[in-house]
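Internal tracking record. Fields below are filled automatically when a chain is submitted to the structure queue. Please do not edit lines marked as system-generated. If the sequence contains nonstandard residues, flag them in the REMARKS field before resubmitting.
Queue: standard
Priority: normal
Entity type: single polypeptide chain
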Amino acid sequence: SGITLEYHAIRHMLNLETVYTYEGTHDIHTLVLGREATGLNAL
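SYSTEM-GENERATED OUTPUT FOLLOWS
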């Protein structure tokens, strides 16, 4: 299946997914804080 850490390409893809998930969490957190501050829903 290719989903092992033995292959460099999949290792880099797994690292990118971690970064993407982390950044997405930050964006959601920002939207929730904005909603709490303004009362407007941006989601």
